[in-house]
């Protein structure tokens, strides 16, 4: 019950100062809310995890992942898995807010609207990182590839940030349309292509032990798009939740 | 409904004349390219089509920003009009490029970064139409459309343009070419003139179509508000 009481304390404290401290309190309150809800139901993470493992197994049959093929396609398989599992999490987390009327409650809270975006985005990022933290060792064991490469982990972190930044924004858009569950992947996948290309190229570079000079452009591209997507989402989120 | 403005009639006539001249220049004025032969003539309209595509996507992004700032319906109409036109022109650019590639590279399609991002670019804007279709409330549709137009412009077309840093087999005629490009050539002055003339012509076509489409958009807007009023 620890997380819930903490969240309540943070939500009820309505200080009049609109400083950065209040901003962070509001963001953490939303993150705690999501984590607490997930701790109780465990439906989101378990669905994402099972789905991710299934995708990896399907790839095994589809691509005949023998030792030779693995070296070149591991990064691609991993990123497709993360992207698919990510959409599942994104659409579910926004649908929960919408269906139970929770989004309206959040919008009524006397905080800046962008705190809702950052809270949801960081919550989604945490779920995605948890899934990745479980999928990576499983993949390593199943295909006997060593994935514990600091560079690869950095790329995965950067790629996930960019993916979740656009994904949270588009999920909150898709959830308000008639065709919501179908729409999110259609909107999201073409838009995150810059992130996915850079992430796959960077990951392949680290897995194949390419010189860091050749990987740096991809890391730069990831950083640039992370910053752009977070900044744009921050600016336009108000217009998406406006009623 | 207001009658067709005089300026628009003039623009129509000028555009048609320019287009006929451009077609004539491409086939009769521009010299035959020595290595590739007749298929090189695709180049003039191929680049012009892609140019109109990019121009329209940019106009839509700017209209999106203007809509979010001011909230005037007309900016939404402009954005939708620009994307609809550019969607068609960009598709033509891909098809004409494919025809050229068959003659020059010997294949209709290859998974080159330039070609791949062009295809994804087209898909992004296909998703834009799907998004608009899924929303009934006109105000929300306009807001979401604007947000998506901005997001998609900074995502894909920018990648498409900046793709010159990749190693690509797509020739880069303007500026320095990539080392691995195949089918590159030097433009003679007659070719350059034809090329620039096609770009100008297609910009006129874009402006003309945009104007017509905006007028149509305004009518559609009126019809929709009338329909909503009757239903209430």
Fold and architecture overview:
- The complex is a heterodimer of chains A (243) and B (232).
- Chain A has helices at residues 2-12, 20-41, 43-63, 67-99, 102-108, 113-143, 150-174, 180-191, 193-207, 212-241.
- Chain A has one domain (2-241).
- Chain A has ten helices and no strands.
- By secondary structure, chain A is mainly α.
- In chain A, helix 2 packs across helix 6 (113-143).
- Chain B is mainly alpha-helical and 232 residues long.
- Chain B has one domain.
- Chain B is built from six helices and no strands.
- Chain B has helices at residues 6-29, 42-70, 73-104, 113-133, 138-162, 189-231.
- Classes of the chains: A mainly alpha (243), B mainly alpha (232).
- Chains A and B meet through helix 7, helix 8, helix 9 and helix 10 of A and helix 4 and helix 5 of B.
Could you name the key traits of this structure?
A: mainly alpha, 10 helices, globular, B: 232 residues, mainly alpha, 6 helices
- Which value, in Å, is the CA radius of gyration of chain B? 20 Å
Contiguous runs where pLDDT drops below 50 for at least 5 residues of chain B: none
Tally of helical runs of chain B: 6
Our estimate of the beta-strand percent of chain B is under 5%
The separation of the N and C termini of chain A measures 34 Å
Order of helical and strand elements of chain B: HHHHHH
Summarize the main sheet of chain B.
none
- The strand count of chain B comes to 0
Q: Between the first and last Cα atoms of chain B, what is the distance in angstroms?
A: 24 Å
Label the overall shape of chain A.
globular
Largest interface: A-B, 26 and 27 residues
Spatial shape of chain B: globular
């Amino acid at each position: 019950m620890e997380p819930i009481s903490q969240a309540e304390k943070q939500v009820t404290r309505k200080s009049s100062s609109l400083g950065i401290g209040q901003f962070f309190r509001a963001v953490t309150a939303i993150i705690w809310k999501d984590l607490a809800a997930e701790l109780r139901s465990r439906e989101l993470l378990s669905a994402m995890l099972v789905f991710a493992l299934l995708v990896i197994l399907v790839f095994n049959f589809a691509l005949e992942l023998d030792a030779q093929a693995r070296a070149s396609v591991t990064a691609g398989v991993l990123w497709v898995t993360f992207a698919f599992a990510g959409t599942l999490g994104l659409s579910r987390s926004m649908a929960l807010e919408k269906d139970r009327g929770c989004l309206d409650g959040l919008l009524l809270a006397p905080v800046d609207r962008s705190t809702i975006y950052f809270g949801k985005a960081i919550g989604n990022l945490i779920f995605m990182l948890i899934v990745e933290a479980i999928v990576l060792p499983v993949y390593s064991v199943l295909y006997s590839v060593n994935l514990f490469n600091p560079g690869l982990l950095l790329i995965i972190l950067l790629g996930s940030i960019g993916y979740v930044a656009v994904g949270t924004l588009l999920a909150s858009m898709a959830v308000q349309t008639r065709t919501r569950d179908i729409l999110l992947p259609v909107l999201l996948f073409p838009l995150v292509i810059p992130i996915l290309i850079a992430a796959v190229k960077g990951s392949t570079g680290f897995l194949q032990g390419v010189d860091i000079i050749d990987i740096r452009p991809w890391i730069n591209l990831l950083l640039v798009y992370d910053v752009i997507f977070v900044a744009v989402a921050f600016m336009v989120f108000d217009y998406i939740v406006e009623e | 409904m207001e009658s067709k403005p005089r300026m628009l009639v003039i623009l129509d006539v000028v555009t048609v004349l320019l287009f006929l001249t451009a077609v004539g220049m491409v086939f009769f004025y521009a010299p035959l390219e020595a290595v590739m032969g007749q298929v090189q003539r695709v180049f003039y309209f191929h680049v012009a089509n892609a140019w109109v595509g990019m121009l329209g996507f940019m106009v839509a992004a700017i209209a999106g920003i203007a809509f979010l700032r001011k909230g005037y319906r007309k900016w939404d109409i402009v954005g939708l009009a620009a994307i609809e036109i550019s969607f068609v022109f960009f598709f033509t650019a891909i098809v004409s490029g494919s025809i050229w590639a068959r003659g020059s590279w010997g294949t209709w399609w290859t998974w080159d970064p330039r070609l791949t991002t062009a295809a994804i670019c087209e898909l992004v804007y296909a998703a834009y139409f799907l998004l608009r279709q899924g929303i009934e409330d006109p105000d929300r549709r306009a807001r979401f459309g604007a947000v998506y137009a901005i997001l998609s412009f900074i995502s894909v077309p920018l990648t498409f343009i900046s793709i010159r840093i990749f190693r690509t087999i797509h020739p880069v005629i303007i500026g320095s070419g990539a080392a691995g490009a195949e089918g590159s050539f030097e433009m003679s002055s007659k070719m350059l003139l034809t090329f620039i003339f096609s770009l100008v012509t297609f910009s006129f076509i874009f402006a003309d179509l945009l104007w017509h489409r905006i007028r149509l958009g305004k009518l559609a807007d009126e019809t929709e508000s009338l329909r909503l009023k009757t239903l209430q």
